[in-house]
Amino acid sequence: MTPPTRRKALHALVATAATAALAPVARAAAPLAGGSGLGVHRMKLGTFEVTTLLDGFIELPQAVLQGNPEVIQRALDAGRVIMPIRTAVNCFLVNTGSKLVMIDCGGAKMLGPTAGRMPQALAAAGLELGQVDEVYITHMHGDHLHGAVAPEGAKLFPNAVLRIAKADVDYWGSPAVEAAAPENQKGRFVAAKRAMAAYGDRLQPFELGAELVPGIRSVPAVGHTPGHSCYLVSSGNARLLLLGDTMHVGPVQFARPEITVMFDFSQDQARARRQELFEMAVKDDLLVGAVHLPFPGIGKLRTRDGGGYTYEPIAWQMY
Ligand SMILES: [Zn+2]
Fold this sequence. Notes:
Elements: H1 4-22, E1 40-45, E2 48-60, E3 65-66, H2 69-78, E4 85-95, E5 100-103, H3 118-124, E6 134-136, H4 142-145, E7 161-163, H5 166-172, H6 175-180, H7 190-199, E8 211-213, E9 216-220, E10 229-235, E11 238-242, H8 250-253, E12 260-261, H9 267-283, E13 287-289, E14 298-303, E15 309-313
Parallel strand pairs: 5-6, 6-7, 11-13
Antiparallel strand pairs: 1-2, 2-4, 3-12, 4-5, 8-9, 9-10, 10-11, 13-14, 14-15
Zinc ion binds near residues 143, 245, 291 and 292.
């Protein structure tokens, strides 16, 4: 039997609980927060630090994929890809210890409301725009370059040089090329024009294949655009090949690298270079990273039974 004093205490407890249940709610339930956290992922690469900043995502219709329609459909089905194809927009920030280098800048708000978060992600990573020394762009399409320019047209990174392969600058910066482009393609020159105006002589074109700072080298990947450049980031034995737009739709183009996208300047060159770069990544056991891979956009490629490749994302690092 419960002793009387204990019984009393229990009654008191129950009474208190009942009162609390009946009393007006003193503290509201947590409101739904809305939105996602800012995408920041950091990893060590040798002595370097590589931070992926998530700019957001864009959506692509199935029609962007070019090639045998049955092959495309089978790859989409096997990858359980839903339409429209949602593709991440990642930016990669490399701290070599002496230079802070941003590689691709996302699309700002120029491509719609689902991208353009890179500046907030950079702030969440504890860095300021003025700390970025160099900005490397893989190619001058809007989802990689618009983010280098502030909404009002000034350069977003006040102290940075902007480095883009000369062949891309020559093409996208050419009034003659733009004048000759079909009317519905002229909008694709806007990013180049804004960036060139914003950076002026702080835009320093380079030859494909050049080493830009110790540990970061351009890797020619002409095909997607006339001056498309990948970047090989190396520190000691650790190597990361940033693939730019060598791929857009992973479940399709890893399994079937012969599938191209309608944005490829040269379908043949883009297809051939993708095969070579994927092969190189496997043979040399490189980490690969890409703007349009699911955040944080870094992993390894393996050869797939029956041809093609599979992509294995890295485990998240919390160093
Ligand atoms: Zn892209």
